[in-house]
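Q: What would this chain look like folded?
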Amino acid sequence: MSTYPKLLEDGKAEQRSLIRLERSETRAILTLSDPGRLNSLTAGLVLQLHARLTELAADPGLRSIVITGEDPAFSAGGDLEMIETSSKAIRESTEPANTTDAWRWIRRQFGGVVRTIAGTDKAFIAAVNGPAAGVGLAIALACDIIVASDRAVLVPAFGRLGLVPEVGTSWLLTRRLGYHGAIALYVRGRGIDAQEALRLGLVQDVHPHAELLAAAERWCARVDKLAPHAFEMTKPLLRAAADAPWEHSLALEEYAESNCFSTATLSSAAAVVCV
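A: My prediction, written as structure tokens:
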């Protein structure tokens, strides 16, 4: 059996529950729950995470989703044992594998997670409670809002592993830091503590560790106060604007804004704003 089907088989065979879900009426908290392995993105954890995200993305009553890790880490990133096994299979001519096996896993599983985060109309809040490395960092950066514990460390370890920034990280870091900031971050490869991440604009807030989830919930409450259509239309608008020419962004705004004019929310809010 080649590597990709084997990874799927191994992931589906995982008997432990590696994703913990807490749910209220409009909010959900997803916790990566394999603390003994620092919530590494093993085949089982990734498949369970993708399945949960897909399920929650389809729930019309849900407005925000918090993603965090079980202490002491957010996620140590890709499972190094899985990476080593896949790499060896590609190099060994006797093994029934090639580079497309790794590509399938990266695109369909890792990519499937971040595409769901970016593509659904829910608000995603990453509550980074500890180290977030590699693909774990990519998942945090893909979220709409990132709050950090004072124990958080962002670890762009791609270069040290002989890898490129992956799973959307090159796009996100370049837009946050510019080309020179992103390439310097890659070359240094060192961990970035919570206060430096705040200074660089990589996280929105830093909080004492015990208050992290409460801070994430406050972002959920802010989303709840918005008219549902307002956030749902603004999220894709702002994500598209990162790459769109000014004229294209203007056209997107014009289309969305004219639809907002037809809602009852605008007429009731206008009186409040003008007071």
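Strands lie at 19-23, 27-32, 64-69, 123-128, 131-133, 145-149, 153-155, 192-193, 205-207.
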